[in-house]
UniProtKB/TrEMBL annotation:
The organism's taxonomic lineage, starting at the top: Bacteria, Pseudomonadati, Bacteroidota, Cytophagia, Cytophagales
Entry keywords, A to Z: Membrane, Transmembrane, Transmembrane helix
Transmembrane segments: 22-43, 55-77
InterPro entries, per database record: ATPase_put
Name of this protein: Putative F0F1-ATPase subunit (Ca2+/Mg2+ transporter)
C-alpha cells in the first residue's frame, strides 16, 4: 500500500470554498431582513383592516418573524 500525497487544491477551488460562507451568511441576512419587512407591512395592514389603535398585529408578526428567523439561522448554522 503506497501512501499517496494529498492532492493540492487548485487556487480557484480554494477561492470558491472561501467564498461559500460569505454567500451563505449574506443570503441569510437578506432573508431575515425580508421576513421582518414583510411582517411589518403585513402587521400594519392587518391593524388598519381591524381598526386597532395600537399596533398589536405588527408587534405580534414581528415577534414571530424574529423567532422564526432565529430558529432557521441556528438550524442552518448547525447543519453542515
Amino acid at each position: 500500500m503506497e501512501h499517496q500525497p494529498e492532492k493540492e487544491q487548485q487556487p480557484e477551488q480554494r477561492r470558491q470554498e472561501s467564498i461559500k460562507p460569505y454567500v451563505k451568511y449574506s443570503g441569510m441576512a437578506f432573508q431575515m431582513i425580508g421576513a421582518l419587512v414583510l411582517a411589518a407591512f403585513g402587521g400594519r395592514w392587518l391593524d388598519a383592516q381591524v381598526g386597532n389603535n395600537k399596533p398589536w398585529f405588527t408587534i405580534g408578526l414581528l415577534l414571530v418573524a424574529v423567532l422564526a428567523t432565529m430558529i432557521l439561522t441556528i438550524v442552518s448554522i448547525n447543519k453542515k
